[in-house]
Design a protein that fits this description.
single chain, 7 helices, 178 residues, mainly alpha
């Protein structure tokens, strides 16, 4: 919820001050790797990114807890931003949302939830259709790369968590037998 208030704050500031310098563009500055996520061009832009965040946040928290998203989302946002920073001027939190979608897809793929797989297929079709027929001002490369990077990082986090849990349970059973 705090992130939504930050979106609203930056949107409100952008009505009075020119914040376009903080968007991700070809005139690259290091702070742009994060700052562009908080600057929205229109109210609807901010509104739909906030809705996406509020939809995926509880799901991601349920699946991964608090630690993994704090690691995965910033890394995927920064990496995808660094890779595609000179493509188009970029504003908005949709890279954060796509990182969350990547984490969601990773968990669905791991668990094989049949009920949620149909929604996942619908989501992927929607994303593909938007990338084909969407606005030409949208930097789809940065969105898809954030989704892919967060998917891979989520798989790694899940794998390492399972390995560390199995070591802990193995140590407990070894102690219990003595």
């Amino acid at each position: 919820m705090i992130l939504v208030f930050i979106f609203i704050l930056f949107y409100s500031l952008s009505r009075y001050y020119d914040l376009s310098d903080y968007g991700l563009s070809s005139g690259f500055r290091y702070w742009q790797l994060i700052a562009y996520n908080f600057i929205h061009l229109t109210f609807m832009h901010m509104f739909f990114n906030s809705i996406g965040y509020l939809i995926y946040k509880p799901v991601i928290a349920e699946y991964y807890g608090r630690k993994a998203p704090i690691i995965v989302i910033p890394i995927s946002v920064i990496l995808s931003s660094a890779i595609f920073c000179s493509e188009k001027p970029t504003f908005g939190a949709s890279t954060i949302i796509f990182s969350m979608i990547g984490m969601y897809l990773s968990k669905i793929w791991q668990d094989g939830h049949s009920k949620r797989q149909k929604y996942t297929i619908m989501l992927l079709i929607m994303l593909i259709m938007q990338s084909i027929f969407g606005y030409n001002v949208i930097n789809w490369k940065i969105h898809i790369s954030a989704l892919a990077i967060s998917f891979i990082l989520s798989r790694l986090c899940t794998t390492f968590t399972m390995i560390s849990r199995s070591k802990i349970s193995w140590k407990k059973t070894e102690k219990d037998t003595k």
